[in-house]
Write a structure and sequence with these properties.
Elements: H1 15-23, E1 27-31, E2 37-40, H2 42-48, H3 52-55, H4 69-80, E3 84-93, E4 96-108, E5 114-121, H5 136-151, H6 153-169, H7 172-196, E6 207-209, H8 211-223, E7 231-235, E8 243-245, H9 247-268, E9 274-281, E10 286-288, E11 295-297, E12 300-306, H10 334-344, E13 348-354, E14 357-364
Parallel strand pairs: 7-9
Antiparallel strand pairs: 1-2, 1-5, 3-4, 4-5, 6-8, 9-12, 10-11, 12-14, 13-14
Length: 373
Amino acid sequence: MLRTVLGRRDKPAAVDSAAVLAALPVAIVVLDATGRFIFANAAAEQFFGASATGLAEMQLSDFVPAEDALFRLLAKVRAEGVSIAGHDLVLESPRLSRRSVGVHLAPLPEVKEAVVLKLQDGSVARAFDQGMGISPAARGVAGMAAVLAHEVKNPLSGIRGAAQLLEATLEPADRELAVLIRDEADRIRALVEQMEAFGEDPVESRGAVNIHRVLEHVRRLAKTGFARHIRFVEAYDPSLPPVLGSRDQLVQVILNLVKNAAEAITESGIGSGEIGLSTTFQQGVYRAGRDAGERQHVPLVVAVRDNGPGIAETLKPHLFEPFVSGRRGGSGLGLALAAKIVGEHGGLIDVESRPGRTEFRLHLPVAAGGEAA
């Protein structure tokens, strides 16, 4: 039970809980029934730009207007006793200016109507442009793709054809060079085709999709190919309603995440590689809609976890940007395309990573009625 009260850190009984929370890199505060701060860790002091002693004399309303969406989430937590997450919040006042903030709120049963609040500057929706699902960098790739399709793919076909003709007439020692030209032409063409995907129109035909069938299809593909040496662990919620989306594109996204996980495990040389696939229903998760003030509920969570080496800290802020890759020879387009597809589905994608555990989570909308494909 959390017993640390701001301004009274000299109590020996409070050392354990305070030390644990102080070590966390995200801002965590506890608010009482009136919204007064009764606990704040070091990251929270930095987030609010105030010391723990100063926060002890203040309320959340000193930093955030009372009509802000954050207060509606607080009221819901207190009224229903449930945990709630929110994304892309704007906390704006004379004392605080934070955008794209992700929050998690949970009741603290030991203190009447107290709420634990976690705040993270830069939510999982940061990879999207206010609900459009594509970052400015990805839009730049979309523009380049249209040019590349015409200016690169057609000449590549000629180069590949010429290499094939040469291959049939050359001596064995020189034939390897022709094969190399052909293979490199294929590789460049595949890269251009990946880039072309950024220029495609958003998903138009969506329907009710059974996400567990999608996951099982991906698992079978992986086990017969690139992940045959890796153990899969599945933890599905059988009561999960259908996802609103495109089956083929969801397969593409999840297959990419599983492939990345398998490659991370293989390159690290882990003897007992493991990939976890799970689904859960998480109430209270929203993302910004296309119109101002619009919010979309995305309660279906699909997670892909691996026990690889984790993602380098320098890569994390740019993980969903095009041409950013942590692997030698990687194109850096897979995660950017995944973020684009998920965004066009009205969903969110986020990641948590540390050595030995990386988990990507898709937050997706529910399909209203209809038979799941």
